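Hi R.,

Here's the chain you asked about this morning:
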Amino acid sequence: MKDKSILISMGIIIYIVMSGIDRFVYHIPNVIYIPVAILGIALILIGFFKDKSK
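And the predicted structure, written out as tokens:
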């Protein structure tokens, strides 16, 4: 259960930080933003479905 919540938390943090920096601080190029955003979303989804496979 703890691994699941850590993955979800990491994914949410990555996604929120990237979105906040892109919107308010500095425009991040799409070449960097898209893969990192996909990584954040993937971590969230892995966290949700990790225990369902057992």
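Residues 2-53 form one domain.

Let me know if you need anything else.
M.
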